[in-house]
Design a protein that fits this description.
Helix content: 40-55%
Number of strands: 11
Distance between the termini: 44 Å
CATH class of one domain: Alpha Beta
Structural class: alpha/beta
Radius of gyration: 23 Å
Number of helices: 11
CATH architecture of one domain: 3-Layer(aba) Sandwich
Largest sheet: 7 strands, mixed
Order of helices and strands: HHHEEHEHHEHEEEHEHEHEEH
CATH topology of one domain: D-Maltodextrin-Binding Protein, domain 2
Strand content: 15-25%
Shape: elongated
Length: 297
């Protein structure tokens, strides 16, 4: 079926690698290569330049990629409408989530959603906020779930689906942990452990430090919240993390929270969608509805 061949072509382009595309589609690499050769024979042109490390589209390949994305979206939309005649919602949703949401919220949402809609396939990408926003903007993702602001005016930012409590944390032996609460001035000349640029958690920390005019002695950067958490527990410095990330450590006494007077430590979890998606399917609509109804226990 031509749809299957187009799916293979799109996967090769987006993965920039035949082996990764084969793994994603549960096909053999020779099978993937055969699909691409059949497409090139059909159109009589080279669609992809191959090398040992990556693939690159030709001009003809770029044209086909854009059209293929649109055709596949229309196919999924038609399939969903047909299945709706049988009172079924089907299709595939490509969900992108920032690390905190993807690791601590999304699994619970997906568990409920999969029970309610067993015929919907879900592909999940977890990355930082900036990377997820880019994926939604390029239509590689149908929906993005992020914490923090995004810089893309082409995206629709839905109202928050959840509020997240942020916590200033330190190793239990840190001098600030002996205090019931502290003043902002007591945070001067501290060592901070932070996420990488592009992370929503990093954006929150940067904004707090800038607005409070806090003088930072030194900072260490990790590209995961788990890394930040472990570094703080090891005594490397202090950090601001979501309570979702450090809930178990706070309960066990592995980390301590440091209340700061007159400071509000909350942020919103947001839903991102492109203003001009290839096609907004019923599956995506149902998933957004589930997100807005979801309550974390």
């Amino acid at each position: 079926m031509v749809v299957d061949t187009l799916k293979v072509f799109v996967a090769v382009v987006e993965q920039s690698n035949f082996s990764r595309a084969a793994e994603l589609l549960n096909l053999s690499q020779p099978g993937v290569s055969l699909h691409i050769r059949n497409l090139e024979n059909e159109f009589g042109v080279k669609l992809i330049h191959r090398s040992s490390k990556h693939v690159k589209m030709t001009e003809a390949g770029e044209i086909l990629y854009k059209k293929a994305k649109h055709m596949l979206a229309l196919y999924e939309s038609a399939k969903e409408e047909i299945f709706l005649l049988r009172d079924e919602v089907t299709g595939t949703i490509k969900v992108g989530a920032s690390f905190t949401i993807g690791e601590y919220i999304l699994p619970h949402v997906l568990a409920e959603f999969a029970k309610q809609y067993p015929h919907i396939d879900l592909n999940v990408t977890i990355a930082n906020t900036e990377e997820i926003a880019r994926g939604v903007h390029s239509n590689e993702l149908d929906i993005g779930l992020v914490e923090g602001e995004v810089e893309y005016p082409e995206l629709v930012v839905q109202p928050p689906f959840m509020e997240d409590q942020m916590v200033l944390v330190a190793q239990t032996h840190h001098p600030l942990c002996s205090r019931k609460s502290i003043k902002l001035s007591e945070l001067h000349d501290q060592v901070w452990v932070m996420r990488e640029s592009g992370s929503g958690t990093r954006a929150f920390s940067d904004q707090f430090i800038a607005e409070s005019a806090i003088r930072v002695k030194r900072s260490f950067v990790f590209n995961s919240s788990q890394g930040v958490k472990e570094a703080v527990a090891a005594g490397l410095g202090i950090a601001i993390l979501s309570r979702l990330v450090i809930r178990k450590e706070l309960e066990s006494g592995g980390l301590c929270s440091i209340p700061v007077k007159d400071s509000r430590f909350t942020r919103d979890f947001l839903i991102l969608q492109d203003k001009k998606p290839a096609a907004e399917t019923m599956a995506v609509k149902m998933f957004v509805q589930k997100l807005k109804q979801f309550k974390m226990t």
